[in-house]
Write a structure and sequence with these properties.
3-stranded mixed β-sheet; 3 strands; Rhopdopsin 7-helix transmembrane proteins; mainly alpha; G-protein coupled receptors family 1 profile domain-containing protein; cell membrane
């Protein structure tokens, strides 16, 4: 009886594969990715904090992004690594709640921070003479705080509306972590309200941030085209291309996963998509946004000599 009651409060995660040999290979792969993510983002946080030359609005947001990326990947990868070594991949009900809340929270905060960073670049390139006044430390602090608050509240709405549902079907989640689509698929009640919440709350954060980011870069590109020197244009376009590549990958996979009716979900396919924006992107963000930057290279060199 006790065992049955315990299982009623658990979910079984089907994971990314049921092949034992593949699981060992995936364990090694995701362990390397996770270590690189933690080390890379930790290095960026330490470098930005200790280097006075990097105490500017752009690096203020980059430090926030690094913190979010570490939390983002930590919400899923440690459990995923443990499951690769386990025969039965179980997660408690409250563990599932915590995982869903943290994953959606940090995903939303990342969306908003990307928009804030795009806004910072817009002011720097399109309004250089007013940059210091507009992007004051007070403004940066307010923007970052708003990003965190909206992300946390958005996730709270999703979590409450998801776990208010009765789960009277199988407790097997066709995913490697607790996410909204597979949880809705297990419910035996009407999930239309949940879909409305996904479209309104989640859609507002995702599509709103994405729209602001794209609009900012449209104006940025327009300003870059007015630069007289070819070298200056190539350098600026290269920076924008790298940023837009990550933005497209990140937002594109999120929109593909969440902003569509549950009737179109293909859970076997969708369980792989979050690997891109929830695990791979946090690993490459320090490289694309920071480690290719000469100012960061100089700060790292000074810290190494120190």
């Amino acid at each position: 009886m006790e065992n049955n009651e315990t299982r009623l409060g658990e979910f079984t995660l089907l994971g990314l594969t049921d092949n034992a040999e593949c699981e060992l290979i995936l364990f090694a792969f995701f362990l390397v990715v996770y270590v690189i993510t933690i080390l890379g983002n930790s290095l960026m946080i330490i470098t930005i904090t200790l280097s006075s030359g990097l105490h500017s609005p752009m690096y203020f947001f980059l430090r926030n992004l690094s913190i979010v990326d570490m939390c983002y990947t930590t919400s899923t990868v440690p459990k995923l690594l443990l499951d690769f070594l386990s025969k039965v991949k179980r997660i408690s009900f409250f563990g599932c709640v915590a995982q869903l809340y943290s994953f959606i929270s940090f995903g939303g905060i990342e969306c908003l921070l990307l928009a804030a960073m795009a806004g910072d670049r817009y002011v720097a390139i399109c309004m250089p003479l007013r940059y210091t006044k507009v992007m004051s430390w007070k403004m940066c602090t307010v923007l970052a705080t708003v990003c965190w608050i909206i992300g946390l509240l958005n996730s709270l709405a999703h979590t409450i509306f998801t776990f208010r549902l009765p789960f009277c079907r199988s407790r097997s989640l066709n995913h490697f972590f607790c996410d909204i689509p597979p949880l809705l698929a297990l419910s035996c009640s009407d999930t239309s309200i949940n879909e409305v919440v996904v479209y309104t709350a989640g859609g507002s954060v995702i599509l709103g941030s994405f729209t602001l980011t794209i609009l900012s870069y449209i104006f940025i590109v327009n300003s870059i085209l007015k630069i007289r020197t070819a070298t200056g244009r190539r350098k600026a376009f290269s920076t924008c291309a790298s940023h837009l590549m990550v933005v497209t990958l990140y937002y594109g996979t999120i929109v593909f996963t969440y902003i569509r009716p549950t009737s179109t979900y293909s859970l076997d396919q969708d369980r792989v998509v979050p690997v891109l924006y929830g695990i791979i992107t946090p690993m490459i963000n320090p490289i694309i946004y920071s480690l290719r930057n000469k100012e960061v290279h100089g700060a790292l060199e000074k810290l190494r000599k120190f």
